[in-house]
Each structure stands twice: as C-alpha cells, then as structure tokens.
Amino acid sequence: MALYRAHVLVCKGTGCKSSGAAPVYDALKEEITRRGLDKEVMLVETGCHGMCEMGPIVVVYPEGSLYCRVTADDVAEIVEEHLYKGRLVQRLLYTTPEDKVKIPHYRDIPFYKKQFRIALRNCGYINPDNIEEYIARDGYVALAKALTAMDPEDVLAEVKTSGLRGRGGGGFPTGLKWEFCRRAKGDKKYVICNADEGDPGAFMDRSILEGDPHALIEGMMLGAYAIGADEGYIYCRAEYPLAIKRLGVAMAQCTEYGLLGDNIMGTDFSFHLHVKEGAGAFVCGEETALMASIEGERGMPRPRPPFPANKGLWGKPSNINNVETWANVPSIIREGGEWFASIGTEKSKGTKVFALTGKVNNTGLVEVPMGTTIREIVFDMGGGILNGRKFKAVQIGGPSGGCLTEEHLDLPVNYESLTAAGAIMGSGGLVVMDEDTCMVDVARFFLEFTQRESCGKCVPCREGTKQMLLTLEKITSGKGKMKDLETLEELALMVKEMSLCGLGQTAPNPVLTTLRYFRDEYEAHIKDKKCPAKACSALISFVIDAEKCRKCGICAKNCPVDCIAGDRNTPYVIDQERCIKCGTCLEVCPFQAVSKV
Amino acid sequence: MKIKSLEDLRKIKESSKDLTSARSGGATRVIIGMGTCGIAAGAREVMTAVLEELDKRGLRDVAVETTGCIGMCQKEPLLDVIRPGEPRITYGDVTPADVVRIIGEHLVGGKVVEDKVIGQTD
Ligand SMILES: Cc1cc2nc3c(=O)[nH]c(=O)nc-3n(C[C@H](O)[C@H](O)[C@H](O)COP(=O)(O)O)c2cc1C
Questions:
Q1: pLDDT tens per residue, range A110-162
Q2: Cβ separation of A61 and B51 shorter than 8 Å?
Q3: Domain contains A173
Q4: A280 in any annotated domain
Q5: Measuring CA to CA, which residue among A210, A279, A293 is closest to residue A244?
Q6: Structural domain total, chain A
Q7: Measured from the CB, is residue A28 less than 6 Å from ligand 1?
Q8: Could you give the C-alpha distances from B49 to A61, A154, B32, B43, in angstroms and in order?
Q9: pTM assigned to the model
C-alpha cells in the first residue's frame, strides 16, 4: 500500500451533507487528481465531528487543521495552498467569536479542548464504511480479548466495575441490567439497541451510527457474549437513512470478516444481528413499546414488571441499551472497568455526549466527563450566548427534561444533580435560552410535543397532558387566571405520578421546573397580561413612534395584511385590530421607529 | 479474509495501521519547503523521493508536512527533520539523492548528515 503523506477528511455526516459536503468532496477529488497529488494525498469520507454549525467541515492531517464552512469554490485554494505549498488557508480556519482569533489546530479549538471522547472517539476520525480503519484504531480488540481470554462472567464483572449507566435516559446501571438478563432462565436471549432517538434536538446516537457503526456492533456483541444471547436487533428510526445504510455496510463487512455469524473467531460464540426500522413515533423509544414494534404490534408500552430482562422480545429474556451506552462498552473491555470508573463523578462514571443547541455561539455535539459544569459547556465550549445577549436558562434532557437557571450554571452535571434540580439527564439534549425566550411559552412548546406523542393508552397521560396544554395556551394568550396555576401544578403532579410509562411520568417536567424557577413570568402573563420576554404574540403589540417615523411607507408596503396607514404628511399608524403581529414592520423600518410593547 | 484468531486481527491491524497513522501526527516529522521558491528549486522531486524512500523502508509513523517560504530561498529545496526529543535540523540544497542519505542516516540512524546541514533550532 502506498504511503499517503496527507489525509483530507471530509465530513459526510447528515449535518455537513445538508450544508453541502458532497460537492466539496467531489471537487477535492477532482482537484487533487488534477494537481497530480492523488498518490500522496488520501481523501477520506468520515462521520460527524460534532461542530455541525461550522459545516461542511474539512480536516487536513498531519497538521490537523480544521476548515469551516467549506464550499466547492474554496477547494482549489485548499489544494494549491495547503496541500501543495504547505500554507494554511487562513480565511477558512475556525475564528473565535469574541476576539476573532484564528485557530490552526483542531485540538486547540475551545469547542474541542475540554472534550473527552470515548463514545465519539472515532467519529470524524475514521471512514465508517471501512472496517479496516476501525481495526486500525483498536477495533474488535475488545471482542477478541473477551472471546479468547475472558469468561462471560469476567466481561460482566468488568462492566459492573466500570460503573457505566444507561445513556438513553434512565441512567440504570448497565452491568446490573446485564446481570438480570444473564441470570434469567431461558434457552433463547436477545440483545437490543435502542436507536430510536426520539428527543427533538438530540443527535448523538445518529452521529455514532453514522460515524462509527462498528463501535455499536462490537459493544452489542460483547453484551451478547456476557448475557448469553446469540441474536440482536438494532431498532433505528427510518428518518435516519444514512445511519441505516452505514449499519448495513458495517454488518456486511463483519459477516465477510467472520465477525458476525456462527463460531466467531473460531470460538463457539455465534451472533446474528438485524436492523429494524421504526416509523418515528416518540413512544416507540420506550423499551416495551419498542419491543412490541419489533414484533409487528402497535408500539404501545405495557406495565413492568415483567421486565424485559425476564420477559422481553417474543417473551424471551432481553437486554436493551441505548446506542451511546453500547458504544462505550468496547473501550471499557479494552481499557478495563477501573479506567472507565476513574473518569467522572462518584456515582456517574465516564462521559456524556450533549447536543448543544439554541441561542449559543457553537452548536453541536460535545462529549465531556460527567461532572463538567453547565457553565463550562455553555460558555467555554459553546462560546457563550449568541449576539452577546444575556443567558436565561437551559432546558436539559429533551422534551421531558427541565429548565434550569443561572443559579445552576455551576452545577456539575450528573444523573443525581440534574434530577435533584428537577431536570433529567435524558438523552443529553441541552437547549440554551436567552433573555428573549418566554419560559411559559417554552413549557407550552415542549408539552405540545409530548401531548401529541402520547400514545393514549393510559388516561392520566392522554387526558392530563391535554388539559395541561389547554391551560398553558390559555395563559400564553392572556386569558389565564391565578387559579390556573394551582390546577396546572395539580395536574402535573398527577400525570407524573399516575402515568404508565416514562413519557407521561416525565412530560410535566418542563412545566414543573418553569413554575418553580420562573413563577413570576407566569404571574406577569396572568396578572399584568404581559409577556416579559415579549414573545407571546397575544400579549404584545407593535407600535410606530410618530416622532421617529420619517413617513417613508416601507412598513405599509411590506405589511402582509395591509393594516398600516399613513402618507407623506402623516406618520404611519398600525391598526391594532387587524395586526397579525408578524413583526415584518419592525424588521424593515430603516429608522427603528417600530417597537414591540 | 475471515478473522479466526487474535493473531489474524493483529495482522489486519498491522497492515491497516497506515490507513490512519497520518492522522495521529507521527512523532518523527519531515518538513519540506513548498513555497514558490522551493518548488522552483525542485521541492516536488524531493517530496516524491521522501515518500518513495519512506515507503521502501516501510516507515509509517513519520509525518510528512509541507511549509511555505521561510526566507532562505537561495538554499531551497529545504528539508527539516525532527526526531522526538531532538533539535530540529534544517538541510539545504537537498536533492533526491540526499534524501536517501538523510532518511537512512539521520531519520532512522539518528546521525545528522553534517555536510548538508544549514541550521538547527531547539
Ligand atoms: C417515551 C420514551 C421515549 C424513549 N425514547 C428513547 C430513545 O429514543 N432512545 C433511547 O435510547 N431510550 C429511550 N427511552 C428509554 C428506554 O425506555 C430505555 O430506558 C433505554 O433504551 C434503556 O437503555 P439504557 O439503559 O442504555 O439507557 C425512552 C423512554 C420513554 C419513556
């Protein structure tokens, strides 16, 4: 094999692909060949780097330079300057938002500096479609070690020592869960991967599926070996076509290399794996509903016990874990449980991937040791609030998580600390909100999601979430009464307590936390009929300051409902009756004469 | 090929190591001046010679980098060798024939090719 002095990595994850990575890749291929560099420069497609905001991302090694928002037009310059002449293309380097410093090395970018990657260790670094790149990075070493030198009990013990807990939401100790399934009686057992990833805004599982599918497969095999299962299912939502494609490629390669099938590596361990596509209902991410869906039944949860470990898929003992949970397992077996347990906090070991979104400068995926503070994530890695606005809250844990405030910024994140504050780790969604966000509206927004996704099987969730949503809509439209707050709280606690599955049990979290930390905003909506963040359209109006109005008429011309009147001699006025509060006039006025009150 | 043992896996790992080795930033580095001056003086040929020699010797953990003009145009092609923990040695007027010596004697053997050295930095 020829020696390539330089590697050009083009991210072809879903994020970068949608921002235009494919034409960049094609242009690079053409230009590298045209310049006669194709024998010394290797072009590689990779999965996600996490900094999707800056995509399409191109990384050039050995220097490790990361280029942002690359277009096909930039390609000639990258090839000429960097690959040919060895000069970095300064204008494409990452620039810090505050002091505009250009950062030449990938690892020095603040977004990456504090990261500690276990689950994402290969994402953006290897070509996910090439099993040999995974093997070059110690892939399948853990499996070989387990099959040749460890008993299933040893593997189990190692995972228990590691302290790994479920990354799918609940945080249940993984080793213990495996042990229940191993001890369960049954001639046939299954391992299942939950790749439903239903939380809006979360995409860490997709990133692993697309960027390092072998890590997941190896993790599942280790679990199957420890438990005594010979068959596995990956339940992946059909909205993840690239993930499903990459899984298919990875599985075919495993079969070709004898890593899937009968008598793996010449031992008597056999493992068969299937991918099942889900139709994307949020509730199908709940484990019992998920198994019903694999069986071809309607995806609805059932009461537990019996737990899946005893009676799971097709009534057989089954172990279900989340993608990120599985992806941590190979490193644990390879490096040892003690090593993993040395990272993180007392009760939350290892790392967690967060999907950082909202009003923050750097959005994307960050993997940090458990115990990292929200401040470090939002300000150091996320680069602070967009447009220099003021931080207001973070919504953590997806639609069933909670909203935390400034006073929680120094909270070290782990399962216990988040639950105590009223939020949850959930899948690791982290939405940053600034002073323009109305917390009542946020609660309404998330509840609207969970209410719509409620499967309807149990009454508290079906009816309770509906009534809560109606109450919130009443408040945001200015028709709320103080008594509604009591009703809301009562309903929330009832739904939390009485619902059959995690969906209902957690759906009230955004309402309860906002009531707890932002009660004054609710009261302002009800008592003063005002939305302090000026976000709820029913409680605001747009007005034109007659002093500032220069009578140009641009607002009237752009108003979609023709409700602004005036002429060259009279200042323009908005007819409040007909105004739909779209805000167009405010945007187009060249003299800042329009304001929101 | 089917992986039947730990040994088989090791073999694949060994043969695929250089698939990703350039990405881990090898400990030993060779840096070639690729400014307009360098290219005019024959840096491309030097680059090709470096890659061929490394390939011939099966040296996979060496990072081959390029750099722009450093202002010593009359000495181009320039080639730097950095071995871990040792000073950076700059060679000048490098020809493809010199490359074979520099890699053999210095990069592998640890003995600087004195007659071609034009500078040293720590
Ligand atoms: C409504 C609902 C949706 C869920 N969605 C997901 C999901 O998308 N992905 C996931 O891994 N777990 C999801 N879960 C959690 C699973 O039920 C289960 O706890 C998890 O897959 C166990 O894996 P872990 O122990 O590795 O976290 C959901 C739970 C509920 C109640």
A1: 899 889 999 999 999 999 999 999 999 999 999 999 999 999 999 999 999 99
A2: no
A3: yes
A4: yes
A5: A210
A6: 5
A7: no
A8: 20, 51, 11, 10
A9: 0.91
